[in-house]
Design a protein that fits this description.
Blueprint (H helix, E strand, L loop, with lengths): L1 H20 L32 E5 L4 E5 L16 H7 L6 H10 L9 E6 L6 H12 L16 H10 L6 H5 L3 E4 L22 H9 L1 H4 L2 E8 L2 H13 L23 H17 L19 H7 L28 H12 L13 E7 L3 H12 L22 H10 L1 H30 L18
Parallel strand pairs: 3-4, 3-5, 5-6
Antiparallel strand pairs: 1-2
């Protein structure tokens, strides 16, 4: 009898362990608003290779680290001290966000540098160039996917050239070694911007396009998404200043300034005139400009009022970060018809609860940064994904700040009219607060168990304060 009992227990034990560690993805009764997998092509299921010495498993009441020899290192960390309601109220989210935040906290964070590939979407002027250069230092140039742009959209000719030099069927190891993509380009499928094109380009779903071109070496990897998100007001001001109107480039003495007091007076009328003259000359010489040569009009650069009236930077986060969803509530038949729906979808997606590519079980967000909270964001990047901290790239910081030429009424206008962007930004901040608090609880437990603060690997300077 004892033998039969032991045999039965032994046969059930693996199932018990699997159930214990299953993510509680069904806890929340909030709709996922899962996007339709447009144009997805069946691909090989990825077999995860555990090259890391440690696999972390977290839930709301426990933190358990299991080493490769099967030994538990940390456990029984109570996270009941996380005040989910306080986080929700701080960032003006609906109370229905609480179960989603709990689900995010329950979700295991696992990253494998061999079988996973990180893909960073960093929209213009979000600080992604500096972080991309840090990623280059961390991984090394050979592991960067060709076509990646530290300060550019995906460069297809460079990707195509390397594809020809190293055909994936002849040099699969070259492509298996790739570990990081970074670009301004949108990674997930998104609506066409041009009404002239009748057919959607396959490049409109960049990640799937790359999978099809590279084949097995990329299809067998799990793509994990990262993003840069910036305060909508700062983002609009920076884009006006540097990309839309080139205030810095076309204001004499601006580039030479080393401290704010050296920044020259800005004359936006002159900036608009110079911008128009240079664009006209470029078009006459046969050069293409981003705005197009058919109608050269930079009148929106003549003042902040005209810029805001033009709505050129209205709803900046629509389709850029997460793809087709969330949709603008004012759209006909919007799948996120209220701003609460936008917030809840954003929580689920940026919180890593949505595996966008159902064929590959990937394209989930594993990390994102809030530009104005970059130091905190990097703390989570290093500690969660287990990278040794490196010096932050800060040489691109400029003393002449874009908001210096904005009046308070301009700032208030953006805050009142960019509800969509601010909803996404607030949801992202709530997730960041949650993860920082969870990290703090984990480190506190480790210290209580006798570890020394300076011996905790992957913990950046200043990332833990009592």
């Amino acid at each position: 009898m004892f033998y039969l009992g032991a045999l039965l227990l032994g046969s059930l034990l693996p199932a018990i362990i699997i159930l214990y560690y299953m993510p509680s993805s069904l806890e929340s009764n909030v709709d996922i608003f899962a996007p339709p997998p447009e144009g997805l092509v069946s691909s090989h299921r990825r077999t995860k290779e555990l090259s890391s010495t440690v696999t972390k498993k977290r839930n709301s009441s426990q933190i358990t680290v299991i080493t490769t020899d099967g030994q538990e290192k940390w456990k029984n960390v109570d996270s009941a001290n996380i005040n989910f309601q306080s986080i929700t109220e701080k960032w003006n989210l609906p109370l229905t966000a609480i179960p989603i935040l709990k689900e995010i906290q329950n979700k295991r964070t696992e990253y494998n540098s061999t079988s996973d590939i990180l893909a960073l979407i960093h929209p213009l002027k979000t600080g992604g160039t500096s972080f991309s250069l840090m990623l280059r230092d961390i991984f090394g140039k050979k592991r960067i996917f060709p076509g990646s742009g530290a300060s550019a959209h995906f460069v297809h000719p460079i990707f195509q050239k390397e594809l020809e030099m190293y055909p994936p069927n002849e040099s699969p190891e070259h492509w298996y070694n790739k570990a990081i993509i970074y670009t301004h380009s949108i990674l997930r499928p998104h609506a066409m911007r041009s009404k002239k094109k009748k057919e959607k380009s396959p490049k409109r779903y960049l990640l799937n396009y790359l999978r099809e071109k590279v084949g097995a070496p990329l299809k067998e990897k799990k793509i994990r998404l990262m993003a840069m998100i910036r305060n909508p007001l700062d983002l609009a001001a920076s884009r006006f200043y540097e990309t839309e109107c080139r205030v810095m480039a076309y204001t004499k003495g601006m580039k030479e300034a080393t401290i704010p007091s050296e920044c020259p007076q800005v004359n936006l009328t002159d900036v608009a005139r110079i911008r128009t003259e240079i664009a006209t000359t470029q078009c006459r010489n046969g050069k293409k400009i981003l705005e197009g040569c058919n109608k050269i009009d930079f009148s929106h650069c003549e003042s902040i009022d005209k810029f805001l009236e033009s709505k050129r930077r209205h709803n900046q986060y629509s389709r850029i970060i997460m793809g087709q969803l969330p949709e603008l509530p004012e759209m006909d038949n919007s799948r996120t018809p209220t701003y609460d729906d936008v917030a809840l979808y954003t929580l689920r997606d940026l919180g890593g609860l949505i595996q966008y590519n159902e064929n590959n079980d990937d394209e989930d967000f594993i990390w994102f940064a809030i530009t104005e909270r970059m130091k905190e964001s990097l703390c989570l990047f290093y500690y969660t994904l287990e990278f040794d901290p490196i010096p932050e790239k800060s040489s691109r910081f400029k003393p002449c700040r874009p908001l210096s030429i904005w009046e308070e009424r301009h700032k208030k206008y953006v805050e009142e009219h960019e509800t969509f962007d601010y909803t996404i930004w607030r949801a992202a901040n709530a997730i960041l607060d949650l993860r920082l608090e969870a990290m703090k609880l984990e480190i506190k437990f480790r210290l209580d168990q006798g570890e020394e603060l300076n011996s905790i690997r992957y913990l950046g300077p200043g990332c833990y304060v009592e």
